[in-house]
């Protein structure tokens, strides 16, 4: 008579190596620095030190693309670590605190710009303001979404986690590109170019 052994539903993850722990701490810290830079960039825009050229490619668009690219690399590197090295809850808390401040600043800036456009004859500028607000929030939303994905799927294989975070990165890149292009398209359409 063969004895049947119960199938293990959960296996204790292998302890993270020292290098994995250092990489995990470094990536989380750099993600926090990237979000602080996004908040600082928003502050410069609110004070007027960073010019906003509606309908034209400028420093605001390029800098948000660069910040999103940097954060994308960091979250992908973090997702490729072992299960024991992940710090998803730290990433969620960090992005919630810093991202909450940044989101409030972005919404405030958007409302102030919309008030300034009440008597504007160019309706495409409103879409430019909405696009700028969306672009301002994406650098905070990406780490938060990645943290939620990793927290709910930390037991999954590394390849699956990286693939799931890659989808979030691709969505963030698509949102940034659409937010940068839609005001330009609206401006060209209003001028009758196409």
Automatic annotation (TrEMBL):
Keywords: Membrane, Transmembrane, Transmembrane helix
Segments crossing the lipid bilayer: 22-50, 62-81, 93-117, 129-150, 162-186
Domain of life: Bacteria
Key word Membrane present: yes
Official protein name in the record: Uncharacterized protein
Originating species: Microbacterium foliorum
Lineage: Bacteria, Bacillati, Actinomycetota, Actinomycetes, Micrococcales
